[in-house]
Each structure stands twice: as C-alpha cells, then as structure tokens.
Amino acid sequence: MLKERVLSRADLICDISDRQLLELIEEELYLMSGETYLSLKDKYELLKEVYNALRRLDILQDLLEDDSITEIMINGYQNVFIEVNGKLKRCSKSFSSEEKLYQVIQQIVAGANRIVNESNPIVDARLPDGSRVNVMLPPVSLNGATMTIRKFAREPMTMDWLRDKGAFSIFTERFLEILVRARYNIFISGGTGSGKTTLLNGLSNCIPSDERIITIEDSAELRLNGIENLVRLEMKNANIAGENQITIEQLIKAALRSRPDRIVVGEVRGEEALSMLNAMNTGHDGSISTGHANGPEDMLKRLETMVLMGVDMPVFAIRGQIASAIDIIIHLGRVRDGSRKLLEIDEILGMEDGQVKMKKLFYYDQKKGLLPADSLKNTKKLKEYGQYEAYEGLLSEHTNSNGGETGHKEYF
To answer: Considering only CA atoms, which of 252, 257, 200, 209 is closest in space to residue 230?
Structure first.
C-alpha cells in the first residue's frame, strides 16, 4: 500500500534522487501514521522495504546485508531459500511478481556487464562485493526465473580468518602456509559449495608480497591483499552475435607472456586444464587452481577428461603432465552437520605402473577431525625456497606437543 502511494506521487521514480525518494516515502509514512497506528520499528521496516523495492534490489537487499546468510536461492518469484550455518531453509520473503524478479535480475546482470534474455538464458555474473551470481531464465528454467547467489565474507579471507572460523587448526594453517611459500603447485578439489574459492583466497594471501601474480577467473572473486604487482584477468562471454568471447584458456596463454611468478586460476572446467598444467610445468612454481571432484583420485580422472576435451593425447602422456605439474591436492567437502571441512591433503609422487602415484599426508576422522598420516617426501622445494627449517621446526613442535606421539589431537 505504501509503495503504491509513493508511486502515485512520482510518475518517474528514476528522475528523482535517492534523497528525494526517501523524503517522499517519509511523507507518505507520516500521512499513513495519522490514519493507522505505526510503531517506530514498523515505520523503519516499511521505509526500508519500499526504498529497496524502488531503488535497490528489493527483498534481496536485506538478505545480502545479513552476514549470517551464505547462499540465496530463488526458484521463481515466490520461492526463496537461504543457507544459514550450512542449513537450507525457506525465506519468509518473496518477490511481489515475476516482473519484479526480472527487473532485479536485469539490474544485477547489467551491473556486471552481462546480458541475459530468452536467446541467452544462462549467465554467470558477480555483485560489486564479489558474490557469485548464476541466472537461468525460461525456456531452460521451467520454474520461472532462477537465480543463485553465493555470498562471500566482507572480511579479507586470510588463513588466520579461516582458522578463526574453524576451518582448520593452527598446525594445518602453518603447514599450508609453508607449502605456498615453498612454491608447491597446489590443486584444490571439492564439490559445489565446499569452500574451494574461500580456501584459494586464504592460500593466495600467503604469497610473498614481492612476487608478480596473475589471477584468472570466469567471474572475479579472489581478493589478494598486500600484493602490489597483481594482474587480475576475467573471461569475457560472447556478445549477442556469438562473437568476441575470451576464454580461460586464452587468458592463461596470454598470462604466460606477461612474466608472472605465479598464476592463480579460480577454477578449471574444460580444455583450459592443459594450459594450466603447462603453466605449472614451465617454471611457474607456486601456481594454484581449483576443480570440482568427489575426491583426490576423482580429481585426477577429471583432469584427464578435461585435457582430452581440448586435445587428442595418449592418456599416459596426460598422466605424466599431471604428475609433473601438481605437487599437492587438497580436498574439501561438507560433513553431516553441513559445515565445510578440509578432508584430505595428498602429495603427488610421480608415476608408477602407468598411474599417478599419491601419498596421503592428512585425512579426516569424523570424531577427531583432520589427522596427519605421513610427512612430505619431496622436500626439494622446501630447501630451494628456504622453507625446510620452518617445516622441520613445525614437525618438531607438533611431535613435542603430543608427547612424542605421531598422531595428533582434534583440529576442528
């Protein structure tokens, strides 16, 4: 009712300033309060609701500003779901109409310089704060317009921040920091929503500030702090005519000509996997990337498949590329309570009998958390980049803190 009253007084909302709109809403609220009792809280909620509907992102605005919400899922204008503390639940709010949802979608997509319509019904975009957005429209979406927003924390996602959130222990944090400083090539695997990009952010912030870093993403989400020589690249979708697309593979090839110390690829999904492996194999030690998989072994198989999508190579040759390029695989996943956990850390040891050989360094126990299984075998990079003493000191501290035992206490 308040919204209709405001609209009746301002035919062209877009022609007035934010301040004028707020004053107009306040005037109508004053008149309404003379007709019916409105508490101060009710007035504030109505003011915010109408202003968000007319000038911002409608019901999404409050959900985006609520830090306890990590994911927003819209299945048509009447069905909105949110994720809070790893649990999904239905939101009490919904859009007033399908048309209003379309308006919000177009506002978000246009802000990311993307286009979505019936001819191009699927698009990935991002919000100014880095939150990831996926939109699907009819005819591919039978429930009406569908939008999923993966939110990211406002705070910088450093390793300390992740540890404070319960992602891992200080021992695991220091171990991973040493791997990054020693320029081990790291691949992060996990399912959808397992925290791959979040961990990638944390690991990337361990990179020494005097290095030249190039990040490559489909939608820019990484936030690296303290690195001055930083180049951020983002893929470009094709235009309406299907032209001028810039792929992840093209960006990796371009990055290799820009003298990077390390390349950080947000996610590999297809034939760009070979370019990423080539980068790791051509002197760009310390590169990091992520991919979707159900486990470390599955990640290796998926990498083989992704390489074959772009080039016809013998599987043995592909496995050789993987074995020589990747040093460490970190696997993430969700456990029973819905929380994200670091489930496994594996070291790649080369080839054996035509297969990529791996050794488990850490494994996850449901009761005890992440436990160490073995120490690093390949310590060449530790010595080469001055991290061997730090690693030996970490192992010594850990052994002493556990009374000489090889196992260790719960980390999560």
So the answer is: 209
Architecture of domain 56-154: 2-Layer Sandwich (3.30)
Judge whether 275 and 252 are in contact, CB under 8 Å.
yes
pLDDT in tens, 114-144: 889 988 899 988 888 878 899 999 999 998 9
Domain boundaries, the chain: 1-55, 56-154, 159-397
Beta carbons of 368 and 410 less than 8 angstroms apart: yes
If you average pLDDT over each of 13-22, 49-58, 128-137, 236-245, which comes out highest? Answer: 128-137
Residue where the block lists tokens 């035992």? 405
Q: Domain 159-397 falls in which CATH fold?
A: Rossmann fold (3.40.50)
